[in-house]
UniProtKB/TrEMBL annotation:
Family to which this protein belongs: Belongs to the GPN-loop GTPase family.
Gene3D superfamilies: P-loop containing nucleotide triphosphate hydrolases (3.40.50.300)
Organism encoding this protein: Streptomyces asiaticus subsp. ignotus
Protein name: ATP/GTP-binding protein
Taxonomy, superkingdom: Bacteria
Length: 196
């Protein structure tokens, strides 16, 4: 029995490039929400209920309705293209969990720093962290209901960012908006890598 040419042709299988992206920012800014909105798998969450014992160390001013907090990380995955998969690692927002950041940052291509204009100072520590480690990042302003909206350049000036650092407005609850943020991070990180 003979084989025709079509029997010998194997389908082209694309091995995707996988990239690690961190999602960081202050307490209650929407990191878990963003990872959950965009992940194509059920996200891994390490959330615990906020308790009265944590009140002295967890400042919930501005996020009084928050009932849980991430204590290790959130994990999700999104395929941006057939050949590009992002692994998302949401960092904990409170200072007492920062010892985890160095481990989570290992091998990261870039990061999202989520910001809330009502508590903009809460993202300074994350910005400093990525600047000191030369990890490319995009600042994503999560547009909460009732929060004042400012132009991207005003946010850039308020955070004293380098002119090349992207600032985007987003709604962390919406998949397409979160996806736009991630694309911005990947593009910025690839450009920074090519320059470096």
């Amino acid at each position: 029995m003979g084989y025709g040419h079509s029997d010998l042709v194997r389908p082209h299988i694309v091995e995707p490039v996988t990239l690690k992206i961190l999602v960081a920012g202050g307490f209650g800014v929407g990191k878990t929400t963003l990872v959950g909105a965009v992940s194509e798998i059920r996200p891994l969450r390490t959330e615990e209920i906020l308790t009265e014992a944590g009140r002295p160390v967890d400042d919930i001013a501005g996020v009084e309705s928050k009932t849980t907090t991430t204590v290790a990380m959130d994990f999700g995955r999104i395929t941006l293209r057939e050949d590009l998969v992002l692994y998302l690692f949401g960092t904990p927002g409170q200072d007492r969990f920062w010892f985890l950041w160095d481990e989570l940052a290992t091998g990261a291509l870039g990061a999202v720093v989520l910001a809330d204009t009502r508590r903009l100072e809460d993202c300074f520590a994350a910005i400093d962290y990525f600047e000191r480690r030369d990890i490319a990042f995009t600042v994503a302003v999560n547009c909460f209901e009732g929060a004042d909206r400012y132009p991207e350049d005003s946010v850039r000036d308020a955070l004293d960012l380098d002119p090349g650092t992207p600032v985007v407005l987003c709604d962390a609850r919406e998949r397409e908006s979160a996806k736009h943020v991630l694309i911005s991070v990947v593009e910025h990180a690839m450009l920074a890598s090519a320059r470096g």
